Amino acid sequence: MGLFDRVSRVVRSNLNAMVSSAEDPEKILEQTVEDMKEDLVQLRQAVAQSIASQKRLEQQYNQAETQSSKWYNNAQLALKKGDEGLAREALSRKKTFSDTAASLKTQLDQSSTQVAKLKQGMTALEGKIAEAKTKKDMLKARARAAKATEQINQAMGGMDPASAISAFERMEDKVLSMEAQSEAVAELAGDTLDSKFAALEAGGDVDFELQAMIEEMNGGALPPGEESKGALPPGEEATPNLEQTATDAELAELRSKLDEA
């Protein structure tokens, strides 16, 4: 294969690809029906011309037949009158018109056959156009549906469902983590306040208990430097510490049991 043939084939293949990609089914269907209508118009014109030609041939044929009959009658008349030469001349004219009539009859038969074929073709084309009109709307609807389906498939093809679902789940986990972190911070803040107040309350009890133990070890007297701790201002009476009193009673009972033993 020569270089020119290869280049020609490449060019033709590229042109065919470009034409195929540029073809719009809806537009092509519309244009095809219009082309068929134009063909039908031309075919009707051809049929009309053929019929007109057939009629002219038929008229010429009838005229030739009439002239042939006329000259035959003239030949008979000349023989009756005894003019054989005139009869011979009349028969010669009759033969000319007879030959013309025979030739016209052949043309007329051919024209009749041609007109019949053209009429059949016209009828077939009319049927095809009617069928094409019926199918056109259906094919256009199918073409639109196919185009829409292709667009949907392309859109779906560009998506990654697994990636989208994974991203959605990650965001859901992140929101849950943020909510848990917020609850934990709030809980820690509440625990800090509660622990501070609990420490204050517990610290007071321990101080009172420690003071009571110190007084008991010193026989009720405060050690030096501790006399002023817990002292009330002049004129005020100390409020009895019920918990300390109960503790003292419990300690006294414990000592009594130890002594008896």
From TrEMBL:
Coiled coil ranges (UniProt) are 26-74, 115-149
Keywords in alphabetical order: Coiled coil
State the InterPro entries in the record: PspA_VIPP1
Start and end residues of each stretch annotated as Disordered: 216-247
Q: Out of the domains of life, which is the source?
A: Bacteria
Task: Please indicate if the UniProt record lists tRNA processing as a keyword.
Answer: no
- Identify its protein family: Belongs to the PspA/Vipp/IM30 family.
Name listed for the protein in its UniProt record = Phage shock protein A
Q: Which organism is it from?
A: Acaryochloris thomasi RCC1774
Upper lineage: Bacteria, Bacillati, Cyanobacteriota, Cyanophyceae, Acaryochloridales
